Amino acid sequence: MAIRAVFNPPGETSSVSLVIRPDNAQAAFRSGGTVCVSRLNLLDEGLAELCERTRVETGYLGEIHVNAYWSPAGMGLRPHFDARYIMNIQLEGEKRWMYQAQPAVQWPYRNASLSDDVIKYPDGAIDAWEKHGEPVSTDWVHQILAPGDILALPAGCGHAAEAAGESFSLNFHFNPVDVGNLVGKLLTGLSTSEPEWRHAPPLISPSPGDHGLINEHVRFIQNRFREAITQLERYVADRALLVDHLLAAQYSGQQYGVWSTLQDKVSEDVPFSDADSYSLAHPVSVIHHSDHEVTLFNGPDKVTLGGDLATLLVLALSSKRVQIRHAKEVLGKDMEFDNSVLALLNAGMIRVTRDSGSHSPKLPSTSD
User: Fold this and answer.
1) How far is the C-alpha of 270 from the C-alpha of 338, rounded, in Å?
2) Could you check whether the bond before residue 176 is cis, i.e. omega within 30 degrees of 0?
3) Phi, psi at residue 310, to the nearest 5°?
4) Which of 147, 159, 183, 205 could bond 99 through an S-S bridge, CB–CB 3.0 to 4.6 Å?
5) Distance (Å, rounded) from C-alpha 262 to C-alpha 24?
């Protein structure tokens, strides 16, 4: 989370953003700056839950976060576009918006200013498709947003806003996961289960004439490509396998704030063994702020965990499937761990897998 003050200096075509301390927010506002709080969902339980439920219920694979904008009259953000889909909700006051009817760049990788209707990126390498220095369409739509109004814009769509009076709004950022990243997730099994994918490739000789080392490196990479192609062909041929892995990518959890602790009673008998493994059930979704706080969602049901229970979840998220014996060794608390697994099974949040398949048995309540 960060707090910034955004100013529009006279004679400049783009805004200037400064990081400020929370106790300087009112002074920045009185000086004519728009105060922006980034990733407000890290601090607010309701916004964190709203972001995660929106992500799951819409099937969105990327991260969703919320920025808050507090602007004095006549101030706002100068023309620019974002590298993500945005949805602005006006809460107090009115704000004058102008936005392009069509995106200036289709799915850009980064934000850019529109200085004198010309695309300008920050310093750095620029690809030809990013259209740096090219003019944008002058076909702009003008709209006034009042409290309760919502404006949604696709990635790469130029826009600017100016407060008609004191204004406060929330901006939801839908950060995308591109196809390349998604394919990378589908190949995660190879990269974690095969030693050739876990260690570094052979060295490349600094000498251009040493073709032996170069050829060894090339052969190594070619072999990994062949294995990746074989794995991807399995997904093409087996729809059920692809669906299962897409669900795993979708319900992998986001890093947001969570709050309280689930209290469980100790259970003397559990319907699983140390040799079993556990993993998240589908379509369970998880949000976690640290290794000691997590919340799970399954439809309308919600379970919030803390302490070792959160560590249990982090292990499951990082490994997809965790052997109970190994998790107990890491935590060092057999009975508390069994009780935690039992509570999560009761809530339908995880599934236990044996050699014969997965099962989610009906268990006695841990609250009795």
Assistant:
1) 7
2) no
3) -65, -40
4) 159
5) 37
- Cα distance between residue 169 and residue 157, in whole Å: 19
| pTM strictly above 0.85 | no
Strand order in the sheet with 293-298: 285-290, 293-298, 301-306
3-state SS assignment for residue 189: helix
d(CA 256, CA 206): 45
Residue with tokens 């014996």: 325
If one counts every other C-beta atom within 10 angstroms of the C-beta of residue 54, the result is 14
How much is the average pLDDT of 128-135?
83
Reply yes or no on whether the pLDDT at 367 is more than 70: no
Q: How many residues does the chain have?
A: 368
Q: Average pLDDT for residues 145-152, to the nearest whole number?
A: 97
Closest listed residue to residue 114, CA positions, set 101, 127, 104, 126: 104
**Average pLDDT rounded to a whole number, residues 217-234:** 90
Q: How far is 280 from 348, CA to CA, in rounded Å? A: 9
3 state SS of 32: coil
Q: Give residue 35's pLDDT.
A: 95
Of 105-119, 260-274, 285-299, which gets the smallest average pLDDT?
260-274
Cα 326 to Cα 107, 317, 318, 349: the distances in Å are: 43, 15, 14, 20
Please give the single-letter amino acid code of residue 24: N
Q: What CA–CA distance (Å, rounded) separates 53 from 188?
A: 25
**The residue to which tokens 């707090």 are assigned:** 3
73's tokens: 């009259």
SS3 content of the chain, % helix, strand, coil (to 5): 30, 30, 40
Mean pLDDT, rounded, of the chain: 78
